[in-house]
Amino acid sequence: MHRRAYLAAAATAATAAAAGCTGLLGDRHPDASVRADDPGRKTLVFGPDDDPLANLGADGAVSHGVLSLTTSIAHRDGTRLTDVALRLWTPDADTPARVALRSPVEGDSSPPPQITLSTPDDRPGQRIHVTDLDDLADETIYPLAFLVRTRGATTLALHATIGLDTGGIPDRHATLDGALRLRYPALADE
Predict the structure, then answer these.
(1) Residue-by-residue DSSP string for 59-72
(2) CA angle 77–81–82, rounded 5-degree value
């Protein structure tokens, strides 16, 4: 009799452990679609259009040779942002773009998140990594704004990697990957 109870308990524990390991590995979603309002304003949509897991919008305007780029990150109710990594670069330029953070994001009651700007070793561009989101994890992040100065480039490429806890038992983590290209012909005139 004890043998059956022991085997049932062991099978239950093994099933729970396997389910927990799957949750720890997380899901990778590299299948974002791009919705274009115009060449300088686009949205990365992660998931179906009628119920996306998250989306990242980017909109820019050129003034005096500088691109003012504003991004926003929205996600489905019941999910939490864990981190956001953006990489900005100009694929049609001989020299890299210079990127500056224009407005740090802040939550209602918590300190601002940790934001790191760096140059990736193996890829072109400037990397912006946002972590320690605290109360921003449950909200739409807006604005995360940048100033971008280029030399002769009219195309800005943006690659986004967004970490998202999707909830459930066990807690699931999703990594959303996507890229888009924005065109600003006015940069050629500056």
Answers:
(1) EEEEETTEEEEEEE
(2) 150
